[in-house]
């Protein structure tokens, strides 16, 4: 028997839009701090999307300042010296012992904001230019998000995002897509004539995150 059969199992990497909305709305009511949004919404989403990418890790680097440097670890590889670190690091073949470790592929960093305390979705992106510029000086790719609006940056394009995806409509409500239920289900199981489906923006976001962070 192949001892690596467990590694060959493909797991479901989908993250439902309805669950995502519930998470965001819930923490906006009970705990809207940035660290909560980072650890309870953004990290679980990324972990799920990359569940079948065994070599890719999502690492919390939000506290990795200069004083975290040691004989085996150098924060300056992903953080400009004497500046605040990004919140998350996405890396392939991650190892905390990163000094002289050429196996690690630093894919991107993620800057997370609270949609309540420091929103991105209803603000001019220029408000965050300083942070994004600083992160891009060290990293090739940066993501800025408050869970409602997602902006993707690449070093060669500077402060002009290569992609922007918003999950709110023009009235600052969650985007939704109503779909028709097949008549057979309405008649036989008495389903409602319409149901809420996942909007194209959500599917586009999940797909683009995978492509952007995988280097495609």
Automatic annotation (TrEMBL):
It comes from the Bacteria. This is Uncharacterized protein. It comes from Oceanobacillus arenosus. The lineage of its organism: Bacteria, Bacillati, Bacillota, Bacilli, Bacillales.
């Amino acid at each position: 028997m192949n001892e690596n059969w467990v590694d060959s199992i493909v797991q479901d990497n989908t993250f439902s839009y309805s669950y995502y909305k519930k998470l965001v709305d819930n923490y906006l009511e009970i705990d809207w701090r940035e660290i909560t949004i980072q650890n309870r919404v953004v990290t679980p989403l990324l972990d799920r999307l990359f569940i079948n990418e065994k070599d890719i890790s999502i690492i919390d680097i939000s506290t990795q300042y200069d004083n975290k440097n040691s004989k085996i670890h150098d924060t300056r590889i992903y953080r400009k010296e004497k500046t605040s670190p990004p919140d998350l690091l996405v890396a392939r073949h991650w190892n905390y012992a990163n000094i002289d470790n050429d196996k690690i592929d630093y894919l991107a960093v993620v800057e997370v904001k609270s949609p309540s305390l420091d929103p991105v979705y209803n603000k001019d992106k220029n408000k965050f230019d300083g942070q994004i510029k600083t992160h891009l000086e060290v990293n090739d790719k940066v993501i800025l998000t408050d869970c409602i609006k997602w902006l993707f940056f690449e070093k060669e394009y500077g402060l002009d995002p290569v992609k922007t995806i918003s999950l709110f409509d023009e009235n600052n409500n969650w985007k939704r897509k109503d779909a028709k239920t097949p008549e057979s289900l309405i008649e036989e199981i008495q389903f409602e004539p319409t149901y809420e489906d996942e909007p194209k923006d959500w599917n586009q976001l999940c797909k683009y995150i995978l492509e952007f962070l995988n280097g495609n």
